[in-house]
Amino acid sequence: MARQNSATLDSLFVGYGVRDTINPDVTNIHTKGRIRELQVEIDFRNYLNFATSTAMSRKDFYIPSGSQIIDAKFTVTSAFNLLTSIVIGTKILAGTTIVANGLFASFVLAANLDTVGATNEGAGTQVGGVALTANAYPSLDVTGSAPTTGHGVLTVRYYEPLASQIPPAVLVGVQ
What we know:
Layout: E1 6-7, E2 13-14, E3 27-32, E4 35-43, E5 68-78, E6 83-91, E7 97-108, H1 109-113, E8 119-121, E9 137-144, E10 151-159
Antiparallel strand pairs: 1-2, 3-4, 4-10, 5-8, 5-10, 6-7, 6-9
């Protein structure tokens, strides 16, 4: 039933478009009034998907243009190993960096990533700052060796942008 889009004259439902039931969404969005919360799971198997130079897919969730980031948090649920540090920022859909350290300036393995339950508060340049000028996807840059274990949850809370309050132009003439 995932592709049930329209009924034909003989009442058969026909699915159009791409069937994508294999890949679940990689992000959860929670709404609390005008405040939204984006959660992304990052682990040793998928961290390269968030690398700065890697393009995202249209299926990935983003922080919309015009939003203001309230805070960011990275919670370790399984300890990372081998890597030296992580920098978390933002990028556009094509993978080009907006701000490399927009969410987290940097945090190191020994102090923050090798302890289960450790929570890191984002203090990047986009946290608590001005409105974003482009749709922003999370980007992650790792220094050191590639990790072989580790899992964490990135949570970003932001104010969604207000819809335009400018009324449309009045239609004049013959209709």
